[in-house]
Amino acid sequence: MKPLRFFLVGCGRISHRHIRAIRENREQAELVGVSDARIGHAKALQEECRALGMAPPRLFDAFDPAMLRATRSDVCVIAAPSGLHAQMALRALRTGCSVLVEKPMALSTQEAEQMIKEAEGRGLTLGVCHQNRFNPPVAAAYQAVQQGEFGPLFHLDGAVWWNRQDAYYDKDAWRGTLRMDGGVLMNQGIHMADLLNWFAGSPVQWIEGMTHRYARPIEAEDFGAALLRFADGKIAVFSATALAYPQNLSETLSVFGSSGCAVLGGTAVNRVCVWNSKSAGACPGEKKPAGEPDRAADIYGSGHTPLYRDFIRAVREGGRPLVDGQAGFSAMQVILGIYRSQQENRPVFVPTLRFSTAAMKAAE
Asked: Distance between CA atoms of 91 and 224, rounded to whole angstroms?
């Protein structure tokens, strides 16, 4: 069976993880084209492909769907600035390409719903890069929850204690803006929102949130916190900061059940800190999958390669990837719910929420 032909749009910070994931799935995937409005970035990525022993992809500048047709691409991977995700995804889907899009999938509920509808209407696969689901400790804990190892879950806690210095935002004018990016919740914390949704296994009903910009030179927040109430009664506490000093501290997910609990920490939920379950008993800091390091090599963890493998399976079989459009929508909806709650100073009913980061700016 021929490998799927991937086209990558956006050659910035995260693109390196994508080309390595394609390389590590090389029997099923090949990179045939890369596009970036800054052609120098695309050329640098092409050289990186050569260094990795990959066939150099064709180079293009500003994205146009004609590029997908010219390279006979099967999948368009979108790693451009967040505010461009939706329009690029819709244009790619309309050429007949399946789409794998970086988080957040969009910056408005309306655009995300359009993306899901377009993919479903055309029988194409839409996936979102919430790769932390594939971290070995996270996958093991989720399986344990499904098997009842912790009993019915009562409540959850998610905290992202990271650092983004002024220099990070200064690299690109779109970073930290409300129309093109959002703040620490939308950009970094959204991965935790996805994990909270996934482990809760129940849709969020109510959100009460607060955000603030303390120190970073941006429009959006550098700190945010919220209470989430799920339809089945679970409650989650969620917070994220870009102000941990002097570097990233941890990303931690905690789940509490009737007969057990687990705390997954490390830089990117990549380490088991506590594991009390029916079968394993109390073994804090000891139970972790063989070979899993205490700290991730970087903040992206190790999930892109298995995320690609799962996405390829879904394209081949005509099924859904583990992180499909609806999962991406639900995580984004949590963040927009926090923003709306901050704006209106009240709890927000999530199922009927229609909101965007642009609406936050419009209300200023």
From this structure: 33
- Separation between Cα atoms, residue 7 and residue 154, nearest integer Å: 43
Percent of the chain exceeding pLDDT 70 equals 93
The Cα 350–Cα 363 span in angstroms is: 20
Distance CA 257, CA 33 (A): 47
Contact 207, 164 (CB under 8 A): no
The whole-model pTM stands at: 0.94
Give the mean pLDDT of 171-196.
Answer: 97
Pairing of strands 260-265, 250-257: antiparallel
User: Chain-wide mean pLDDT for the chain?
Assistant: 93
Rounded to an integer, what is the distance from CA 298 to the centroid of its chain?
15
Q: Are 147 and 342 contacting, i.e. CB atoms less than 8 angstroms apart?
A: no
Alpha helix ranges (H) inside the chain = 15-24, 39-51, 66-70, 85-93, 109-122, 136-146, 166-170, 184, 190-200, 304-317, 325-344, 357-362
How long is the chain? 364
- The bridge status of strand 4-9 relative to strand 29-35 is parallel
How many Cα atoms sit within 13 Å of 134 on the Cβ side? 20
Residue 305 half-sphere exposure toward CB, CA atoms < 13 A: 10
Give the Cα separation of 217 and 225 in Å (integer). Answer: 20
